[in-house]
Design a protein that fits this description.
single chain, alpha+beta, five-stranded antiparallel sheet, four-stranded antiparallel sheet, 16 helices, elongated
């Protein structure tokens, strides 16, 4: 077996030697083609769907149920039971837990939560995303029910609800903020980029607002305090005493009977006593207005804000949805703005941080190589292959249908170290030949075939290690696959092209530096790897 492998590598070295000699005849053309390939990779990156983290099939689904404003606990419970019956008809559901009441700003007794446990993915015909789409359609078809399905695999990365789309609309005037946020939600729904759109703006039960007419009250001799006391005593009740029973002391409260205070018209028939002792009807002293009451006025960073949450619609990406949101936010009136939060903000920050890490890694690698080689030119030659490792990862993600996320971005960084090491092997060995009097082109033609075997061995070993997670077996495969695929794609393309591009740049840079063949040996650090 060893002899067969040696013969195979010998044949491969001869073939590579011929290709290398051909490429070094026109090194400028090789570098031009490599630059064009990198430009195409940039376009591919722009086409890739982007997201913070990929969704996982964890066999768990969380559903937020919202019923009509004013629904009491029994009405909400009855609708929740209908939702349970709808859910339990599916054989994919093996366990259901539900309760009435909101969670995380979901409302009061007119809201409910459902937690579903599904059978393992191998035992289902639909994955979790497809099953969630079916539940979304069936539950929202129940009269009086609005269902929002949340992917639990997106939770835990931020302190908020855990939706992939989270942002807030902020401004000073609450009366203007509400219609602006509702208009924005309507435009966002029309874009088709999101689904399960929801917000923390909740309108509660209608309330009756009583506004005294101060001028009339002064004319008839009834104070505003008397009006308030009358309404409070007859509708809300006043404590007139206490009594003890069973070891407990209970309040004795006096107020109108329930049938006498259940409608707004009942209050208008009440009477307040004037200073002259006469009873004046409240209908002549006050104005009545029935309005919906807010459950809360929310603020973020000392600004009035309405938070909006959503899932990414099928066929779209988190990055695309955020671009739509930012475009819509640019058209808001002066004084009102859109501020990303939760997973949306984490997505933006993580992408910029990883790009900074990539740039910093290249800079530090150059500084270390410059000190080792005692040269400014050779480190540049070595790192020329790094853009092509990124290009290989981009093409691999596009072909396999993976997204650009924090895990695939980590997969972009790993091949850089491997291919940089391959370039070091080539450049250092070529420098050793130059010290013996060979020209740059001849030195690289001799160094390339000799160092082919260690380059292929290192790259192949790394790719074989990344192959099992790239196949996507086992739980959590959705997270491991993008990173492994990016590593494999980056290594395949960069290793293949580094055998041509790095020698071509080595020859071109030597020409630009004005070096001539036959120059005496120069001191170079011995970094050869055997």
């Amino acid at each position: 077996v060893g002899q067969a492998v040696d013969r195979a590598f010998g044949s491969l070295e001869k073939v590579y030697g011929r290709i290398l000699r051909t490429g070094l005849r026109k090194p400028g053309l090789v570098l031009g083609l490599a630059a064009a390939l990198f430009a195409v990779a940039i376009l591919v990156f722009m086409l890739l769907p982007s997201e913070f983290v990929p969704s996982q099939d964890q066999s768990r689904v969380m559903i937020r149920i919202q019923t009509a404003v004013g629904s009491d606990i029994s009405e909400t419970d009855a609708l929740l039971i209908k939702a349970e019956e709808t859910v339990n008809r599916h054989p994919e559901v093996i366990q259901t837990f539900s309760f009435v009441g909101g969670m995380g700003g979901g409302g009061g007794v007119n809201a409910g939560m459902m937690f579903l446990t599904l059978s393992p993915p191998a035992e289902r015909k639909m994955d979790q995303a497809e099953f969630s789409a079916v539940l979304r359609r069936e539950l929202n078809a129940i009269p009086g029910v609005r269902a929002v399905i949340q992917d639990t695999s997106q939770q835990g990365f931020t302190a908020q609800r855990g939706f992939p789309i989270e942002f807030s609309v902020r401004g000073a005037d609450w009366d203007q903020l509400v219609p602006i946020s509702q208009k924005l939600m309507g435009e966002l729904t029309a874009s088709g980029a999101v689904t399960d759109l929801d917000s923390d703006y909740r309108v509660g039960m209608p309330e009756l607002r009583v506004t005294p007419d101060r001028a009339v009250c002064a004319d008839v001799g009834v104070s505003v305090d008397d009006v308030a006391t009358t309404i409070n005593a007859l509708v809300g009740g006043i404590r007139v005493g206490k009594y003890s029973t069973g070891g407990r002391r209970l309040d004795v409260r006096v107020k109108l009977m329930a049938g006498q205070r259940s409608r707004p018209e009942d209050i208008s028939r009440l009477r307040a006593r004037a200073r002259n002792g006469e009873l004046v009807p409240l209908s002549s002293l006050v104005l009545f207005e029935e309005q919906a009451a807010l459950q809360a006025i929310t603020r973020r960073d000392r600004e009035r804000a309405i938070s909006i949450y959503a899932n990414v619609a099928p066929g779209h990406s988190q990055g695309e949805a955020l671009r739509v949101i930012e475009a819509l936010g640019g058209g808001l009136p002066v004084g009102y703005r859109v501020v990303l939060g939760g997973s949306s903000l984490a997505f933006r920050n993580s992408m910029s941080s990883l790009l900074f890490a990539m740039f910093l890694g290249i800079l530090i690698a150059y500084m270390i190589l410059a000190s080792q080689f005692n040269s400014f030119k050779d480190p540049v030659t070595i790192i020329t292959i790094l853009p092509l490792s990124v290009a290989g990862a981009a093409f691999a993600l596009l072909i396999t249908g993976q997204s650009l996320n924090i895990f695939s971005m980590i997969g972009l960084l790993l091949p850089m170290g491997i291919v940089k090491k391959n370039s070091i092997i080539l450049v250092d060995y070529a420098n050793a030949f130059k010290e013996k009097g060979f020209a740059a082109r001849e030195a690289m033609e001799k160094a390339g075939p000799i160092r082919l075997r260690p380059i292929l061995m290192t790259a192949t070993a790394t790719m074989m290690a990344a192959l099992p997670p790239a196949l996507g077996f086992g739980s959590g495969a959705e997270i491991r696959m993008p990173m492994a695929i990016a590593v494999i794609g980056g290594l395949i393309l960069s290793t293949t092209l580094s055998l041509i591009v790095v020698p071509a740049f080595y020859v071109v840079s030597d020409r630009l530096a004005g070096k001539k063949s036959g120059v005496g040996p120069q001191e170079q650090p011995n970094l050869s790897i055997t």
